[in-house]
Specification:
heterodimer, A: 6 helices, 42% helix, B: mainly beta, Immunoglobulin-like, eleven-stranded mixed beta sheet, six-stranded mixed beta sheet, 7 helices, 46 strands
Chain lengths: 168, 653
Amino acid sequence: MKIILKSSAVLFSVLMMGCGGKEEKKKEGFSVDRAKTTTEQASPAPTTSDTKPSETIDLTNKGVGPITSVSLTAEVDQEMAKKGEEVYNQMCLACHRVDKKFIGPAPKGILERRSPEWVMNMILNPEVMVKEDPLAKALLAEFNGAPMANQSLTEEEARAVLEFFRTL
Amino acid sequence: MKKHTYLVLGLLGFAALLTGCGNGNQGKSSSGALNSSNAEKVYVAPGEHDEFYAFFSGGYSGNLTVYGLPSGRMFKEIPVFSQFATSGYGYSEETKPMLNTSHGFVPWDDAHHPDISQTNGELDGRWIFINGNNTPRIARISLTTFETEEIIEVPNSAGNHSSSFVTENSEYVVAGTRFSVPIPQRDIPINEYKGNFQGALSFISVEPEHGSMDIKFQIIMPGFNYDLSHPGRGKSHGWFFFTTYNTEEASTLQEVNSSQNDKDFIAAINWKKIEAYVNNGGGTKMPANYAHNVYDESTHTATSTMKKEVLTVNPLDVPGAVFFLPTPKSPHGCDVDPSGQYIIGNGKLSADLTVHSFDNMIAAIEDKKFDGEAYGIPILKFEDVLAGTVKSGGLGPLHTEFDAEGNAYTTFFISSEVVKWKLGTWEVIDRKPTYYSVGHLMIPGGNSRKPFGKYVVALNKITKDRYLPVGPEMEHSAQIYDISGEKMELLYDFPTHGEPHYAAGIPAELLAPKSKKFYKLADNKHPYATLGAADSKVVREGKDVHVYMSTIRSHFTPDNIEGVKVGDKVYFHITNQEQDFDVPHGFAIIGANTSELLVMPGQTKTIVWEPKQVGVWPFYCTDFCSALHQEMQGYVRVSPANSNLELSWSLGD
């Protein structure tokens, strides 16, 4: 008997939903305060205070990987940057929109926060970076655990992408 | 009844053990897998690699499986002749043409004899070939991608069994017919077989750089059953040898009627002579209809072309090219030793092995010592070509492989054993039981000029009690033996998928370094590829809707699609934008009447979906790709057929 009552209640509510949806805009979803708290993901990052890893400025850290030194010319090498943009559009764009946070952070302004070596090592050696570089590790946590994919760029291609970042 | 069966089996096993131990000083070492040092020999520690690749034909699975030796671990099933829902092979738009034939789309075959390409008679590890027995076809599989690249149908053939063996420099992969048929096919009474049916032996050229196959010529032979074959090598390079049975030309109750003659033949074919004849304009072009299917790695797409002509050769038109070597008792296996001197015919109804001598054969041909002819083809005298007989004491010899030390190993189906014997002296050195009823056996390189004689694997036909029972149907069992010493040692026992007939092994160091890790996106020439996420789009062409979709951990671009209607035919062209080793993405959509797609990095694959119901339908990634794999999903909104909703697509907006 109880079962019948219960199931008829369910049926009734299903019917209600079925009828109620007459293109009438309902309030979407439900509302619970589920904003992320800072304690939720204990970040091992070298971030002090409330600065997010993505906003942390660290221009001395070169990261972990094959790149130990990059020298940037005073002027942007436009030809190299153009090549870098092509590589970026094919290999990176799916997760990194140029000027807004998407799956991963936006590259715009990255060289104000990171050393060129760090950027190239993040491109060329992401699996090791997210394990051994404290900042990369913290970024992985900030970006929801979405791993930076190793897109198997050559050093030359990664260098071109870096040059493209300088134009942003 | 059951008890009786076990009792009989037990007695057989006991008898086998007894014969196994009968050789004096074997003592404890013959206790096989009970010996802990044997366990160490097959133990490949976690993270370490096997010493050999072994490619087992899948038999009625239609595919090829890849194992490691000595561990017996299976690494991959390579789809060849059968649709394979796991990857979408034969279901995806790109691979459906691979299974096209003159009989239309044939989604299955019976795959028998893998053989690895050779250079100078040694395994070169470029390709592996395998035959489809039922709807005659030969496939070529790349040993860098481990994927099927080409399938050619064989006309005028039926039961493509004495195949797919390669010549010493992979000049040809050879396909012989087991069943003779009317050539060309025509409507005649079956009992007019004799003299009217014929057997085609096809020599398929292999282009040296890319491996492309083309039927160079077919030799139209008398209507026997051409059972197995192997190429000459070294001194006998340029010849090919085929066993025959049913030289009685029976068309019914072959079980009895094909076993009347005391001797059938090994057909010796001087293919170099026929090649020269053909190159000089010889042969007859005959109308035919057969499919040639080629998979292009850059477009990730196969095409199927119907060929309309085949060059046939009447053996009587090329004197000195074809001879028959009388061989007792319906020979099955036809194996040539590493030197090329000995041709072993295993009379399957005999206890003895017949070994022919290549030198004797050439001498007899030069002296024209013939013992009559069959349909005009000279028959040599048995005694003139015989090199020796191996008096093994076993029953039902089938196949022989070789080590590098001048020893041969022959399987005996009826007495369930492998017998090791010495080439030249014909003495039996050792014998070990198999479990049970062994068919082929395989030594890596064991049918080439350079065998790697460390292990032999016995491929058994009957499993019975070897593993935990799983109902009436069981996988077949294989046993691996250490053959590095004088006596063989049974090391290990492992199940194999489908019904492996033959297998081919090769040292891992010859393949592993060149195994492809992923496809380069920059090399992707698929017409519907999405090379960058910005290129994602949805295009309507009448009722066809093309979705250019890309994947990367862990989302689809786009993941929301609206404007699809009932009655549309939706092509999902999925490009995996990952460029890293072992990061496939899957694609599956509710209600698809096909299969999933498993898309390798840099690859594009297409599946068709024909929505029949209005609604909002999900799709998702089937391959656990990252911590956010469960989030890798999307929706397609399907509106009624008469809806005016425009196509739209998005991701994250």
